[in-house]
Each structure stands twice: as structure tokens, then as C-alpha cells.
Amino acid sequence: MKTLINISILLIILNDLSFPQFYADSVTPDYVIEFMKIADENAKSIDSLGKAHKKFSSEELYHIAKLYYKCYNDDPVGFQQFVEEKHKEWEKAPFEVTSENLKMRPWLKVYALRDKIAYKFGIPFTEIIGCPALVRAKFDSSYHSTIYISDLKIDWGVRKFVFIVDEVLKGNKLFRGGNKFVVTYSPNAESPIPEIEEGKIYLVPIMPLLDSEDYNGEISFSPLRDYYDRWAMGKPPKTFPIENEIIKNCEYFGIKDTNWTDFKKFFKDKYLIFD
After folding, report:
1. Average pLDDT for residues 229-253, to the nearest whole number?
2. What three-state secondary structure class fits 111?
3. pLDDT tens-digit map of 77-94
4. Which stretch, 37-46, 59-68, 95-104, 201-210, has highest mean pLDDT?
5. Which DSSP symbol is given to 255?
6. Which residues are 170's β-sheet partners?
7. Which residues neighbour 51 within 8 Å (Cβ) at sequence distance 6 or greater?
């Protein structure tokens, strides 16, 4: 983006808590600029209930979905920091707070355009293409720790989940087989602890965990929502156990429990169409 941004950092090595340094380009990618330009136009049609009424053709929605995929697949940290920077600019703008101004909040514009993709392709499809990484990994152990939340100026109690990469289904730029990585998670009433057991293998959806300051390499479970409702409570992050090479709980992907080889082909044909 506008500054060199550490984007891949998902490979946290446990013995010294270091991670490889990968950087985005020093300029904002064209696909981010185009996606946000379309989001700007779409936001102009948002009504008082937050619904956008702008119409897109099937071809346009396919293209928008491809841009959305690239934003989260190619540079998830850079994209989120870009939108955060735009949000800070919006907050500092000297305007009167009206419904017209509020609907132009950068993240609201992103979500409104995301909803267009979901209406066409479904929420699971939209969530999966917007999930930076899905990794087949063995759950090794967990322990308690803290992270510093700069906005709140406090240390926050979290739980760390240690995994060993077995295979990367999505996110090859971010993970490599055999590496250990740590997932930071703060269980609460809205998002309980995921249902996982030590020593077992899972397909784990992963996303960067960003504070408002510079990204420090933290990652978390991606929730893979079933519906878009900010008041939804009590839903743990989705994980998909793999037992005897059979992946389970995979109705979310649109397929019955099946063997890992067939699942990989299905996933590639359905969700990696923008590669």
C-alpha cells in the first residue's frame, strides 16, 4: 500500500516467535482502487436501513467478486489497513453528521458491496473467497496470554492455539507445510472457543488480527458467517475435522462429508476460480 506493509506473517515460528518478512508493493494495487471506486458508487444508493439499491449485471457481479477475492487473497493486511486509513480520513473530515455522510463510511461501503456479492453467490461463497487462508493443520496445544489493544490502552486476555501445517488449501503465499503457527483468540459470549481437540487434524479458516496500529503478525480464526447480522451471538468459529481422510461438517461449503482428495478438487473448482 502507501507504505511497505508486512502482509504475510502468518508463519509464526514458536521457538523464537519470529516470522518471515513479506511485503506488499509500495503503491496501492489497481484491484483495490477499482473495488473501492465501485464501492463508492454503490454507497450512493444506500437507504436509511443500510441497503444499497444500485443494480449490477451478472457479469459485473462476477468481476466485483473477483476484485473482492484479490483484496483478501493477495494482500489481506494491506487492504484492511488501506480501508482503515480511509476511515480515519473520513472521521477527520469537517462535515455535519447526516445520514448521507454516514453511509459513506469506508467500511460500510465495503460491506454494502460485499452484500451484493452475497446476494448473487450466497454468504458462504462470499465468506470463503474473503477468507485469506484455509489450512489443513494439526492442533498441537493451547495456552493463555495477553495482547495490547492500543485503542483501549489495555492488555487483553487471550488464548493461543498452536497448529502444525499439514497442507495449504488457500493461502499458499502465507503458509508452508510443516511450519507451526499460533492463532490468537479471545473467547466471549459472541464467539465461544472453537470445537477442537489436541492431536486432531482440522481445516482451519484463518485471518489477520489487526489492531489500529501497525500489524504485528497476529492471526485469528476467520468466523465464516452464516448470515450478516452484527447482533448474532454465541457462534464459535467454524472448524472442519478431518478423520481417516474424511472431512466433516463441510455442508457449509456445499458438499457432504467426503474424502480429502475429492474435497480439494471440489474446493478448487468452486472457490479458487479467480486465481
Report:
1. 88
2. helix
3. 899 989 988 888 887 776
4. 59-68
5. S
6. 134
7. 112, 115
